Amino acid sequence: xxxxxxxxxxxxxxxxxxxxxxxxxxxxxxxxxxxxxxxxxxxxxxxxxxxxxxxxxxxxxxxxxxxxxxxxxxxxxxxxxxxxxxxxxxxxxxxxxxxxxxxxxxxxxxxxxxxxxxxxxxxxxxxxxxxxxxxxxxxxxxxxxxxxxxxxxxxxxxxxxxxxxxxxxxxxxxxxxxxxxxxxxxxxxxxxxxxxxxxxxxxxxxxxxxxxxxxxxxxxxxxxxxxxxxxxxxxxxxxxxxxxxxxxxxxxxxxxxxxxxxxxxxxxxxxxxxxxxxxxxxxxxxxxxxxxxxxxxxxxxxxxxxxxxxxxxxxxxxxxxxxxxxxxxxxxxxxxxxxxxx
Length: 342
What we know:
It is a single chain. This protein is mainly α. It has 3 domains: 3-109, no CATH class; 126-207, no CATH class; 241-339, no CATH class. The chain has helices at 3-13, 19-24, 33-52, 64-76, 81-97, 111-120, 126-137, 153-161, 164-182, 192-203, 241-247, 268-284, 308-314, 318-322, 336-339, and strands at residues 255-256, 288-293, 304-305, 329-334. The radius of gyration is 22 Å and the shape is globular. 28% of the residues are buried.
């Protein structure tokens, strides 16, 4: 049993009033807290789904109140609102599909409470959001906006992260994400004013896309060495975009495939279609290793290697890139050979 599995199963046996402090005392130092919260919530959501579908279990399982408790506790400790809304919307959908009444849901997991929490997080009115999105769409993304060969990408990133355009861009992307999650819940809301407000937001949803309409990618410079970690590489040795999108996030620690992608991806299907070939190529070149786990976080050494035809088949499944797999988690880890390409 992994450390995470031991914590999760212990949590199920603790009296509810003692769970908060018991859990906080066991936050791991070796795994990012964000990944830990996601794993706990995914495990509880999976248990709730199994119960509502009537699937038998031979071990203690989380119920809806525990799953909601974990989401609320994660939010108190920094989990973003858009993540909490998506997780709560998933739980609500599971419960409603199983015939559970809205009034029987935990208070913070009722559609009105989730919608109010979401709208309060937007930080701008509909008019402001639509105007800001239009401004960002009209701002061309030119070659100068991309990191140039030899440039200090970390300094560029730090400067970008505090820029108004960057922050508003991601705020609008999050509003898009939240509204998409709220849309199926509107018919179950009871507060008339809230329903009107959410429907009004949904009516302008198509106006809230901040992605620039004109994007000019960097001009290729054949023969120019790319300065990545001090290693000069020619075109044959370099990485294509899909390989970069897979490899770069793995710099600090292994990650499940469901956490790879890019902010503007229209769907996880698109992520799978783009990153799947990149992952296969990186494994073939010896830069990345892929393993299968029963859950995540987990100790890397305990995973079962995935390669060859198995990897070819699994990397094309949208479920492993979206976290919807009911059975296992595929995770990737950079090798020593791959580190020189960062």
